[in-house]
Design goal:
alpha+beta; globular; 5 helices; six-stranded antiparallel sheet
Length: 177
């Protein structure tokens, strides 16, 4: 009887631990803002019609250098008015895409938001304490961010994905102006 109770306690303890970890994993995933909400927030008046930038020639190679891989499409959609461009881009963190909205004004990042996060960990990149680092960043002459971004322990791949997307949006903004 005593052995059965000990085994039962052990099994229930393992189940509780498994439940705890599975709950924490699912908390990281989520849609935090829709694309339409992001665009409405970015363009206070009205959302401009979408435009396309084609990835061909030197532009395609530069995008590949920024991302460390080929971009999966031949074109990227963006929205632009006189001074502002908005980009909704995806990049793989560890295994799944992270969707990020980036607003560029006068060649510098005005805001960056994680719209959807699909990884099991690393969602700390969505918080303001992290995204504030990107505000007012621009590109150097060799297509690098002009300031260092502090990482987050346990979210290294998500941080790198955000840095690549910020660099990509700034590069593409400069190409479309």
């Amino acid at each position: 009887m005593k052995k059965c109770l000990t085994t039962l306690h052990l099994v229930s303890g393992y189940l509780l631990i498994a439940l705890f970890f599975s709950a924490n994993v699912s908390l990281a995933r989520g849609t935090y803002q829709t694309n339409d909400e992001f665009l409405a927030q970015s363009f206070e008046q009205s959302i401009p019609a979408p435009k396309m930038v084609w990835l061909t020639g030197d532009r395609k190679q530069t995008v590949k250098n920024i991302l460390n891989h080929d971009y999966p499409n031949l074109r990227i959609r963006y929205w632009q008015n006189a001074a502002i461009s908005a980009w909704i881009l995806d990049e793989i963190g560890k295994e799944h895409p992270i969707t990020v909205g980036i607003v560029v004004k006068d060649g510098a990042i005005q805001q960056i938001r994680v719209l959807a996060f699909r990884e099991s960990r690393g969602d700390e990149i969505r918080h303001a304490f992290f995204t504030r680092q990107f505000e007012q960043l621009s590109l150097t002459d060799n297509d690098q961010l002009n300031q260092k971004i502090d990482g987050i322990s346990g979210a290294t791949l998500s941080v790198r994905a955000m840095q690549r997307l910020a660099t990509l949006a700034l590069f593409l903004d400069s190409e479309t102006r």
